UniProtKB/TrEMBL annotation:
Name the UniProt record assigns to this protein: DUF3971 domain-containing protein
Organism: Noviluteimonas caseinilytica
Superkingdom of origin organism: Bacteria
Lineage start: Bacteria, Pseudomonadati, Pseudomonadota, Gammaproteobacteria, Lysobacterales
């Protein structure tokens, strides 16, 4: 029997296709090899060395999906990883596979227990030439569970982060829940983030609940912030418009207040700065109403400068003797503080009304506790001086009055 030329060609083609199918099935059946190839391609595109020490899984249903465990991503030769995650699930379209990592188009990415080192990440980003900085796409979104961002002396624990879609020219929506931690200070948050697009120049809005918790005090607030985001040498939002509807509690103290701010936010090399900013505070009871210009910076400690005016002396504050107490003049003030973020260290307050001037040092939690205790001590826990040309006490009029209160614990560490 003679086989025609056409039949022989079909047999050769069929054999070749069968051989390719066998090779492909053998290749796919070894997910660790697939993982190594994919990680090598993605790492090359990002300028990172990416490895996986755990068991890998590879699926093709609905498009290629790779599940990796104990993933480590670092700049080649670096001691500290940019990212380490217990589990990473990456689903990609076939176009990404064909591009061999040149196109960073993903269907979905899921991260379990990722840890990001801020310093290592900054060094990696600085090592990338601008032309090599690539923006990935996530058509079916990003999911993060039990993550952590680690900085110098602080961390952000991320219980959950969900981004339904990440496309360069599309609006971005995200929800996140977690807490900022530094020493005994915790700042839990549950926020929604909206941006016109995930890129520099986008208009960003952040809304949600945020708290400041410490062993003996707590502040809870509803946050609303917005502004244009600029990326490059750090992060900038100029201007940032922020408002907080808040409540401060400590022992018997329960103080509701509203705070608003408008000014430039800059984040660079681990430092957060706001200067110059306009701020306003409105409240009840012992919370004063004031408007001020502010300068704020935070790295491992906070630095605050306020220069403003109290509209009136709050009724809940200790009554001022005449004639100071009868004056309706506003009270210009300057407040300076440097120390922990909880305002537990020494602050300095300079306050005036007409010809009366006060220069005092105090710790805010101690003053609030003194007020809360119904002023069992006749003098507040502060140190400083006061000068007034006239003072009426017990029916007697004193002139040229100078008062000095000394507290060694406050004087020795005065700012």
């Amino acid at each position: 029997m003679t086989i025609s030329l056409r039949a022989r060609r079909w047999l050769l083609v069929s054999a070749a296709l069968l051989l390719l199918a066998v090779v492909a099935l053998h290749w796919i059946s070894r997910p660790q090899r697939v993982a190594s190839l994919v990680l090598s391609q993605i790492g090359s595109a990002l300028g990172l060395q990416i490895t996986s020490d755990g068991t890998a899984e590879y699926r093709l249903r609905g498009g290629p999906q790779l599940v990796l465990r104990e993933v480590d991503a670092r700049v080649p030769g670096a001691k500290t990883a940019v990212l380490h995650a217990k589990r990473v699930s990456v689903a990609v379209p076939w176009s990404t596979v064909r591009s061999r990592g040149a196109t960073l188009a993903f269907t979905r990415v899921e991260l379990d227990a990722p840890v990001i080192d801020v310093v290592a990440m900054q060094q990696w980003l600085a090592s990338l030439p601008p032309s090599e900085t690539k923006m990935p796409t996530l058509s079916d979104g990003l999911q993060v569970r039990d993550g952590r961002v680690v900085g110098a002396g602080w961390s952000v624990d991320i219980d959950a982060l969900d981004v339904p879609r990440w496309m360069p020219e599309r609006a971005l929506e995200a929800t996140t829940k977690g807490r900022f931690v530094q020493g005994t200070t915790r700042v839990p948050f549950a926020l929604r983030v909206d941006a016109t697009r995930p890129a520099s120049g986008a208009q960003v809005t952040v809304r949600g609940d945020v708290s400041l918790e410490q062993p003996q005090r707590k502040l809870v607030a509803r946050l609303n912030a917005r502004g244009p985001l600029q990326l490059g040498d750090g992060l900038r939002i100029v201007p940032l418009r922020l408002s907080l509807v808040s409540r401060y509690t400590q022992d018997k103290t329960d103080l509701p207040f509203v705070f608003a701010m408008n000014g430039p936010l800059r984040v660079r090399n681990g430092t957060v700065a706001l200067s110059p900013a306009g701020v306003a505070l409105r409240g009840d009871d012992v919370v004063p109403d004031f408007d001020a210009r502010a300068a704020f910076a935070w790295t491992n400690a906070a630095s605050l400068h306020l220069d403003g005016t109290l509209a009136t002396w709050p009724d809940a504050w200790p009554v001022l003797p005449p004639p100071i107490g009868q004056s309706t003049s506003p009270l210009p003030f300057v407040l300076d503080y440097a120390g922990p973020f909880d305002f537990s260290d020494i602050a300095r307050l300079q306050l005036k009304r007409d010809a009366t001037a006060v220069d005092a040092r105090f710790r805010l939690p101690e003053v609030l506790a003194w007020i809360d205790a119904d002023a069992t001590s006749p003098l507040p826990p502060l140190s400083g001086t006061a000068h007034t040309p006239t003072l009426e006490i017990g029916g007697a009029t004193l002139e040229g009055v100078d008062v000095r209160i000394d507290d060694p614990a406050l004087d020795t560490a005065a700012p």
